[in-house]
Specification:
293 residues, 16 helices, Tetracycline Repressor, domain 2, mainly alpha, 81% helix
């Protein structure tokens, strides 16, 4: 094997690992936690003080490592249906053997455990609960009717609960933001079930499209998206600065997503709908910097 081929194979394995741990999602998670801490949970704290806060850094690191491990174990249990739904992605991610994937899963969780133990026993217990919940979701809950979607959305919110507990800030505004994000993630997760219908049906996952049909599933998604308008109303009433523009804009944008969803009939169209919400979540994360400005 030439040096060029060796480098190319090494690069592919790095890309495989990045895809396996959903590197993009981990980067967004870390960014969201820092922006949430700086502008919502502890707005009086300067950036330099936040960046030098070892305990906060440790909580964010443990969150990122545990979540990355969660994506690996979820991929491990979903391998059969991913082979049907995303054959190219499946091939890329399985350049790393399943045995090696499990080793990475254990190493990431062990690293998160060690980091958490450097803070306090309460933090250790929190992340042990988080790890076990992710494993339970991936191995069991993922196949259960409707519960899988709620579980998935709650797991995405849990790292933010960790930093909320750290700063001991329980302002109602935080819970309005959490509710908005929860319903948005819930809608996105159900849309993914439409996108992955073929593999879910073959592997007998009890998702909403499999149990009911596409039309009924779209009604559930519509309800979830309309529920985002409730926390949006309360957030708009608060003196939160320029972030108001994001919440005002979410009404026409999410209405457009609903129209697109109801016209969608193919796997590709559902993927576009899923990506529209994913993009909106990213814009929402970046918009946190506008709060109180």
């Amino acid at each position: 094997m030439s040096l060029s081929d060796s480098n190319q194979r090494s690069l592919l394995k790095i890309l495989s690992l990045f895809s396996l741990v959903r590197g993009y999602n981990i980067i967004v998670l870390v960014l969201a936690q820092y922006l949430t801490a700086r502008y919502i949970l502890a707005p009086q704290t300067a950036w330099i003080a936040l960046l030098l806060d070892f305990k906060f850094f440790a909580i964010v690191s443990a969150s990122a490592l545990t979540t990355a491990a969660g994506y690996i174990i979820n991929n491990f249990y979903d391998a059969a249906k991913d082979q049907i739904n995303r054959p190219k992605k499946y091939i890329l991610e399985h350049l790393i053997s399943q045995q090696l994937q499990l080793i990475f899963y254990l190493l990431l969780n062990m690293a998160a455990f060690v980091i958490a133990s450097a803070i306090s026993i309460k933090v250790v217990l929190f992340f042990l609960f988080y790890m076990m919940t992710i494993w339970f979701y991936s191995s069991t809950v993922k196949r259960l009717f409707w519960l899988s979607n709620v579980f998935s959305a709650l797991l995405m919110i849990l790292p933010f609960w960790a930093i909320t507990l750290y700063f001991k800030n329980f302002d109602p505004i935080i819970f309005y933001h959490a509710a908005y994000l929860f319903f948005l993630i819930l809608a996105r997760d159900i849309i993914k079930d439409l996108e992955n219908f073929k593999g879910d049906w073959v592997q007998r996952y009890q998702t909403l499209p499999v149990v009911f049909n596409h039309r009924t599933t779209k009604i559930f998604i519509t309800v979830a998206i309309l529920c985002t308008f409730i926390p949006t109303y309360f957030l708009i009433q608060q003196p939160l600065g320029k972030i108001h523009y994001f919440f005002w804009a979410s009404i026409p944008f999410l209405s457009f997503v609903l129209i697109f969803l109801w016209r969608a009939q193919t796997e590709k169209a559902y993927l576009w709908t899923h990506n529209f919400i994913k993009l909106w979540i990213l814009i929402g994360v970046l918009s946190i910097a506008l709060i109180y400005h």
